[in-house]
Design a protein that fits this description.
There is one protein chain. By secondary structure, the protein is an alpha/beta fold. The chain is 34% helix and 23% strand. It folds into three domains: 3-117, Methylthiotransferase, N-terminal domain (Rossmann fold), CATH 3.40.50.12160; 138-366, tm_1862 like domain (pyruvate-formate lyase- activating enzyme, Alpha-Beta Horseshoe), CATH 3.80.30.20; 372-433, Nucleic acid-binding proteins (OB fold (Dihydrolipoamide Acetyltransferase, E2P)). The protein has helices at 12-27, 51-67, 78-82, 84-88, 105-111, 156-160, 168-180, 206-216, 234-242, 259-265, 271-284, 303-315, 343-366, 430-433, and strands at residues 3-8, 31-32, 41-46, 72-77, 95-96, 138-142, 144-145, 164-165, 185-189, 221-224, 249-255, 289-296, 320-325, 372-381, 386-391, 396-400, 409-418, 421-429. It has a five-stranded parallel beta sheet with strand order 2-1-3-4-5, with helices on both faces. A five-stranded mixed β-barrel has the order 14-15-16-18-17. α12 (303-315) packs parallel to α13 (343-366). The longest helix has 24 residues, at 343-366. The relative contact order is 0.08. Catalyzes the methylthiolation of N6-threonylcarbamoyladenosine (t(6)A), leading to the formation of 2-methylthio-N6-threonylcarbamoyladenosine (ms(2)t(6)A) at position 37 in tRNAs that read codons beginning with adenine. Residues 133-363 form the Radical SAM core domain. This is Threonylcarbamoyladenosine tRNA methylthiotransferase MtaB. Belongs to the methylthiotransferase family. MtaB subfamily.
Length: 435
């Protein structure tokens, strides 16, 4: 039985697709092994959001060749889609496959093919079948692919194509299958998730999809992936507030707190709009985890514009931030913009934003000391007799419990915070405490 190892870089959509590719290989008779072990086939599912992720793809490819000089090495994903030539020139690479080719990766690898389809011509989002996921307790489910926004800094629309939605019935079927296989939480993912359903006939919406999943009740916990600020509707916020299924967790790509920078980026909202949105979220969901993406050092960003972003971050009740130093991506509008910010300035601004993020996360965690939270047990630690789990509002929680509580939702009193993890005390099962 041939061995296959997959390494995944980037977003939750890539993680979902890697899980689906793994399942495809197993159905074709292959055995999956960790990427750190010798394998007959290595697949690197690449990201190309930054130059750093491109470099990481190349590093993983070289590492795979060292692990087994006779292995077949395959590059796929977004870097492979937008710059196949760069990967084909690597002597370690045997095949380069685009994002569309993930639908039949086992067959293409078996045939030894390299192929990059024109992703811009894709009109539909065929759901990749997936019945299991590596985490065993929570699974990602792709509801949408592609993006129509073409923000100035972003290569993703060229790597993923136009916005395409998985048909409603297929998403519901995917949730049911994951739930039937024991998953207690499903995370809806997409490249531009807020655009879900706009391309379907009849048209649907993300709020409508979420309502259907929650009403059906197949899975106890539903988490929504990143949603653009101008697409997090009041209807969706209201659904989250009223539902016992939808997790109180939102992730909003802010990118900048300066209106002039947002305009240059091609973002379709203002800092004031974003602030008002966060106020509506916190009013409806006072315990919600609110995450955000922020870019440091976009071309032309002055110190005053950066300070507008920093001050907005400091003022708003964020729970955490993903800070991205600006990276020039060939083929994007921003790559050719004047007044590129020096690398050392970008690094300094990124550090200041990350410092603010640490303060925000610490303050958010401290709020829950003494509170009882529902925590889904994810990983057992037999040597310590403890379990690591995740609360509905995205706190990493650790508590003493036997391994039979993995994949069960427990009621845990948070007692203290250590290194970003909430340490708690088990008081029972959540359903028993809150029936």
């Amino acid at each position: 039985m041939k061995r296959v190892a997959i390494a995944t870089l980037g977003c939750k959509t890539n993680q979902f697709e890697s899980a689906a590719m793994s399942e495809q290989f197993q159905k074709a008779g292959y055995r999956m092994v960790p990427f750190t072990e010798p394998a007959d086939i290595y697949v690197v599912n690449s990201c190309t959001v930054t130059a750093r992720t491109d470099a990481e793809t190349r590093r993983l490819i070289r590492r795979a060749r060292r692990l087994n000089p006779q292995a077949r090495i395959v590059a796929t994903g977004c870097y492979a889609q937008v710059a196949p030539g760069e990967l084909e020139r690597m002597p370690e690479v045997d095949s380069v496959l685009g994002n569309r080719e993930k639908q039949d990766i086992a067959g293409l690898v078996e045939a030894g093919e390299s192929r990059i389809s024109d992703i811009s011509a894709e009109q539909t989002a065929e759901p990749l079948p997936l019945s299991s996921f590596a985490e065993h307790t929570r699974a990602f489910l792709q509801a949408q692919n592609g993006c129509n926004s073409f923000c100035a800094y972003c290569i993703v629309p060229y790597a993923r194509g136009r916005s395409r939605s998985v048909p409603l019935d297929d998403v519901l079927r995917g949730v049911r299958e994951l739930a039937a296989n024991g998953y207690r939480e499903v995370v809806l993912t997409g490249i531009h998730l807020g655009a879900y359903g706009l391309d379907l006939s009849p048209r649907h919406s993300l709020a409508g999809l979420v309502r259907r999943i929650a009403d059906e009740g197949a899975v106890p916990r539903l988490r929504i992936g990143s949603v653009e600020p101008n697409e997090l509707s009041d209807e969706l916020i209201g659904l989250m507030a009223a539902s016992e299924v939808i997790c109180p967790h939102v992730h909003l790509p802010l990118q900048s707190g300066s209106d002039t920078v947002l305009h240059r980026m091609g973002r379709r909202y203002t800092a004031r709009f974003f602030s008002d949105l966060v106020a509506r979220v916190t009013a409806a969901l006072p315990d919600a985890f609110i995450g955000a993406d922020v870019i440091a050092g976009f071309p032309g960003e002055t110190e005053d514009e950066f300070l507008e972003t920093l001050h907005l971050v400091e003022e708003l009740p964020f729970s955490d931030l993903h800070v991205f130093p600006f990276s020039r991506r060939a083929g994007t509008k921003a790559a050719g913009m004047p007044a590129q910010v020096p690398a050392d300035v970008i690094r300094g601004r990124g550090e200041r934003l990350r410092d603010a993020a640490v303060m925000k996360k610490g303050a958010f965690l401290q709020r829950f000391i003494g509170r009882t939270l529902p925590v889904l047990g994810q990983t057992g630690q037999p040597e310590t007799g403890r379990i690591g789990g995740l609360s509905r509002n995205y706190l990493q929680v650790e508590y003493a419990a036997s391994e039979d509580l993995v994949n069960r939702e427990a009621a845990v009193v948070i007692e203290r915070i250590r290194d970003g993890v909430a340490l708690g005390r088990l008081v029972g099962l959540w359903g028993e405490q809150h029936s």
